[in-house]
Amino acid sequence: MTAAGTAPAPPSPPSSPTKKGSRWIEEWDPENETFWNEKGEKIARRNLLFSVLSEHIGFSIWTMWSVLVLFMGPEYGLTPADKFFLVSMATLVGSVVRVPYTFAVALFGGRNWTIVSASLLLVPTVAAFLVMEPGTSYTTFLVCAMLAGVGGGNFASSMTNINAFFPLRKKGWALGLNAGGGNIGVPVAQLVGLAVIGASGGPRVLLGIYIPFIVVAAVLGALYMDNLATMKNDTGAAKDAVREGHTWIMSFLYIGTFGSFIGYSFAFGLVLQTQFGRTPLQAAYVTFIGPLLGSLIRPVGGWLADRYGGAKITLWNYVAMSAATAVIIAASMNESLPLFTVAFIALFVLTGLGNGSTYKMIPGIFQAKALAKGLTGEEAAAYGRRLSGASMGLIGAVGALGGLGINLAFRQSFLTAGSGTGAFVAFLAFYAVCFVVTWAVYLRRPAGRITAASSASEAKPQLSYAEV
């Protein structure tokens, strides 16, 4: 299987013509505890490590424009609305490409696609490096921002790939760690931007720093990752997932958590500059804190969901998000920068916690649905794996669109009222709706209702997500 000489057990049969090469693992059974303890865990953790690295760089490039716009002073001729639209387009493309990226893993292999997706990050980075100067047309900047959206797709392919490597009992932790490590790419890019601004460097310096790291991520993926031949794209499962109501309900809830995280990550610095008159350096000093804490706590959200049930954690997380947003509104209306900043950072932390808990809900929901249909044993497990895996890419893509909505809401709020207060009022109302939906669909207990609590208690260790 790998150059390290470690081979999965039992011995692999001859490779099929389409799966040739030492980097293909022909048999993979993480639910088998003997296999997992002897060989599987080591392989899975190694792939997780380098998947996180690639996804981390992807997030950095995707959100790079949230830092670049801080460099773009009056000499660039851009209004605050123009800047919000730039970051909105990066968010939009990053959301849309998550769907094809999800299926690319099974089509090309997790290792192979990591190499490709990491290498593609050179396109927006080099393009922005070449044109980043006053006098460049707004259309050119817009195209470069849209190209940066390919970094958002890395999340979907990385999560799909790592999902297949781990057993169900470890997925909350593994997916949370994978996503959290990727999300940290946001504050790291902002920290690097802070260092560059502090050293009186320009935006080209920031872009130039990332070019070699992109190459390193691609090379390490090629050297140390593996493809799973057992992963297959199931177009029928994708169609079933689209028709399944729970896919769209979870997409809606993920808009509230991850959509908020990525949207605020793009907008925080611009809001501080536009509403509170912060300089680029002053804004950069604090913008990284919220995304950093939100990224670090995401695995905790997954762990809490593993332990107590995803819906319960998600429900109360929306209560806390609503409270933090209410404080932000009060701070915004009273022009209190310290209170605004503290409450905004707290909101970031809560979005990260909710990211972990909502994503962990997905397999439990479809397993509970399988049991409600009268399926048992491996038949129920196969149903749950198939639909939960197929729905993940779509949920991740739709959820990320929340970031687009947040930046467009800020743009409109500043255009019409000169502050972000109106946008925050809209966000507060949305979180209240998310609370109601979570309770009504997954925690209310009328007869026959599938609940997250029952899914958590009925899920068996041998279950896993669909291999898509």
Topology at a glance:
Layout: E1 24-25, H1 33-62, H2 64-71, H3 80-96, H4 98-108, H5 110-120, H6 122-131, H7 138-147, H8 150-165, H9 168-183, H10 185-198, H11 203-224, E2 227-228, H12 235-243, H13 245-276, H14 280-287, H15 289-308, H16 310-333, H17 337-372, H18 377-417, H19 421-443, H20 452-458
Helix pairs in contact: 1-5, 1-8, 1-9, 1-10, 1-11, 2-10, 2-13, 3-7, 3-8, 3-13, 3-18, 4-5, 4-8, 4-18, 5-8, 5-11, 6-7, 6-11, 8-9, 8-18, 9-15, 9-17, 10-14, 12-18, 13-14, 13-17, 13-18, 13-19, 15-16, 15-17, 16-17, 16-19, 17-18, 17-20, 18-19
Your description of this structure?
By secondary structure, this protein is mostly helical. It has a single domain (43-458), classed as MFS general substrate transporter like domains (Growth Hormone, Chain: A), CATH 1.20.1250.20. 78% of the residues lie in helices and 1% in strands. It has 20 helices and two strands. Strands 1-2 form a two-stranded parallel sheet. Helix 1 runs parallel beside helix 9. The relative contact order is 0.14. Mean pLDDT is 85; it is low at 1-18 and 447-468.
